[in-house]
Amino acid sequence: MCRHIAYLGPPVALGEILTAPEHSLVRQSWEPRHQRSGTVNADGFGVGWYADGDPVPGRYRRSGPVWGDETFADLARVVRSTALLGAVRDATWAGADGEAAAAPFASGPLLFSHNGAVRGWPASLTRLAGTLPAERLLDLAARSDSALVWAFVLRRVAEGDELSGALADTVLDIAAAAPGSRLNLLLTDGAAIAATAWGDSLWYLHEPGVRTVVASEPYDDTPYWHEVPDRTLLTATRDDVLLTPLKEPPE
């Protein structure tokens, strides 16, 4: 379920990444090529981007399919950024949260997306959720597994973890509590990207010193894309990409 993408590089119109490529994120909303679960990603979408001189990103999110939103098409044509995170959502159950459940989730300089699903939700995470402060639970962005996963990541960042460590430890905690979950997470602060491949596809495109793109699947058929192995943590900047294997949590 879901598709997402993050970009770091020279200033580009959002549409150059999200709408213009042959197999762009918008096309992936109705015709994904590598999605392992779900079919049509029409239950919400969003994009977050960074403006010069402001570390806090702007966001545009809606609850419906991206292909029917003319305002998004205009925004993607004229807004330019050096860093962005976009996502299209395939919900696993009915809900009333609307655009609040659509990625990217945000806090301060951070943008976050979850491609996947927590198996056995919500019962499987009841015990783990109890480790969060009550105010963090009451402040959840939406009543969804992705919003709770974001709360776990955000707690680790607040405690001083780097982006990559916050994602890796969160994935291992949730995988231990809810085995069989799909936990492809994507996190950026506008300068670096951290992502996990855990149960679904993840790819990256890297031109050292120029641009880095991390996505659920390639947006074109050029040979420059590299698939990330399952159970892997990716950490990237414009200069380099590092892949670190993730071990299954002990049973």
Automatic annotation (TrEMBL):
Associated pathway: Amino-acid biosynthesis; ergothioneine biosynthesis
Signal peptide (from-to): none
Pfam families, sorted: GATase_4 (PF13230)
Keyword flag Hydrolase: yes
Catalytic activity: gamma-L-glutamyl-hercynylcysteine S-oxide + H2O = S-(hercyn-2-yl)-L-cysteine S-oxide + L-glutamate
Catalytic activity, EC: 3.5.1.118
Domain Glutamine amidotransferase type-2: 2-251
Keywords associated with the record: Glutamine amidotransferase, Hydrolase
PANTHER family for the chain: GAMMA-GLUTAMYL-HERCYNYLCYSTEINE SULFOXIDE HYDROLASE, GLUTAMINE AMIDOTRANSFERASE DUG3-RELATED
Record's function text: Catalyzes the hydrolysis of the gamma-glutamyl amide bond of hercynyl-gamma-L-glutamyl-L-cysteine sulfoxide to produce hercynylcysteine sulfoxide, a step in the biosynthesis pathway of ergothioneine.
The name this protein goes by in its record: Gamma-glutamyl-hercynylcysteine sulfoxide hydrolase
